[in-house]
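Quick one:
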Amino acid sequence: MQQNIGNLEKELLFERRKFKNDSMLLEEVHALLDENETERNRITTNLKTESASTTNTFIFDQLETEKIFHILQIRSICVDYRLRFLDSSFFNDGIPEEAISKITNLEKNHQTTLEGFKIMAPTKAFQLLSYDDPLLFAPIGNDYYYLIHQWGSDITKKRKWLVKPFKNLGNFVWFCLLISVVITYLTPETNLSKSVPMATIIIFLFAFKSIIAVFMYVYFMMGKNFNVAIWDRKYFNN
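Output:
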């Protein structure tokens, strides 16, 4: 078997020499690699440069339907998981080579140059060097976006439930109500509470007032805001 493989290799080398010598082959390969490197550098620069482009020219028949999303669908996911959807220029490096390769293939297949990239990721991914499941999109136009690549595996259903109290003001109030009910239930009865009419309701109202006041103060003092308000904002303290 080894002898056959060796013979085949010799045959291939013989065939190749019919068309070009080794120096010509190396020159072509070197030129090809240089061209690929230039293309990858251009794409990397585009990803790091803020763009006002809101549309790209795609060949419709080559688009994959399951990768097309409307801005309202993207907004819904961002709000549920407390993510941001921002220009890729705000993302602090760390876009994988696989994503660059997919952009290169897309540009070749659709005979275009892609711009206006967006990334869906947690806030800290745009402030710190972090890799928590970013998703890379390119705009199609008319508020539609094409999903190019996702990397990471840290965003789960658990995150959705952990950030649910901060989705909007209504969720925040319900969360405070739930905590107040638990505190009221855990508060031990005393002789005084037994003698005071509606003591349980008074304890509940006092707990709710205290909890919502403290939570709101601490939350907003830290410069935080609800998911519905921050999903597409580029400023940290909002």
